[in-house]
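Summary for the steering committee. One of the milestones for this cycle was to obtain a three-dimensional model of the protein with EPZ bound, which we needed before selecting residues for the alanine scan. The sequence and ligand used are listed below.
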Amino acid sequence: MDKLVIQGRRPLRGSLPVSGSKNAALPLMAAALLADGVTTLQNVPTLRDIKTFAHVLRISGASVKPDPERHHMTIDASRIDFPEAPYELVKKMRASFYMLGALLGRCGQARVSLPGGCAWGPRPVNLHIEGIKALGAEIDLDGGYVVATAPGGRLNGGSYRLEPSSVGATINIALAAATARGGSRIENAAIEPDVVEFCQALEKMGARLNGIGTRTLEIEGVEALRPITFRNSPDRIELGTFMIAAAIAGVPGEPVRLTNANPDHLGADFIDAFRRTGAVCVIGPDYVEVTAPQTLQPVSITTGIYPGFPTDLQAQWTVLLAQAHGSATVTDTVYGDRFNHIPELNRLGARAMVAGNTVEVEGGHVLKGAQVMSTDLRASVSLVLAGMVAEGETHVLRIYHLDRGYERLEEKLANAGIEIERVPYDEFAQPEPHAA
Ligand code: EPZ
């Protein structure tokens, strides 16, 4: 198992390159299953979640060839002869549940493990299931698996209103609807950039969509889709993470440049809140330049579905508030329980208190290095940010969580002045007893 060892309070200088989007690449990989032939994806990040999903696709019969050097991936879906996604893999990565819509859309049948718990919680997929039922699928829940069949081998199409709007359900229903006999409509559809890009790829494959980027997505089913070459967009959550890193660890007056980015995908709420902290951000076509202020202002945020403040940036924002002069709050309206990083941040000396789906942060206290434990992807990166500004040495453990969604993070940060290294460690080694 690996950990990151960080010597805090080194200034962040120079530039940080943004990798391809994880949450846009995953649905693009699922869409490739709909086409009989070889799809090529570009700007695909080398991440654990991408590797896991590539393995899920191979189980169904696809041949997936990543090219980590060029960040390309080819997916040959000429032969999809095992329409299943097993528990061992789906439990590792929730987006594997996209196989339900993809296999139904391609093969007219699917047997896909529920991602965790039951359909209604703790990470519900009820909207995915109800939406696909609305297209005419027959669905059984059998031993933790969703078994879906399109009567006569092809779905009819139908309409469904998502409540709440859901990224995953929008994508899953669209995957199944693309090759249905008739038309389909998704109301209250998600409009995240990841979803818009996925719809644009479906269109390029020959699908017929109307209302891309709006809350009402209409899809006219077609017989078959063709394989394409498609360039994945940059990761908006990594961009936001790097902007926060520059605001807290940059040298006041010295801009840090975040490159290979798409600033349009951040959403107005995040940029507005970011600027209200006093950090200066200059937005270019494919970069953002951030200049840290002398003192950070405390700015409370509330997450929301796009274009609201992304829930995937709330843990990182909490670290910024810990550095600000004053108190502020972070409220997550998308997930009510996404605060596992708070006890670990408090181990570093932060003063953060959770009440319901809000955390109150009293900023301005000096953080001191410690051993801290990652609990999930975005919690993990918030601990790295905190270690960058804490006095002394911080060990961030269980960074397999981090590797799910951040490519070569320690390399990128080390190239920008941060003293950080990846070190293997034995989680179960007993501490040596003190010599008597
Ligand atoms: C996507 O998850 C992202 N994952 C998440 O990023 C992100 O946090 C989330 O969208 C919200 O933006 C990927 O794109 C792979 P949802 P998803 O369905 O699709 C409720 C990361 O860190 N809901 O939009 O699973 C759900 O409980 C990950 O990269 C139902 O009630 O999120 C939540 O409250 C973490 N029933 C809300 O909808 C359902 O059937 C939004 O969830 C599905 C969802």
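Key point for the committee: The CA atoms of residues 105 and 176 lie 4 Å apart.
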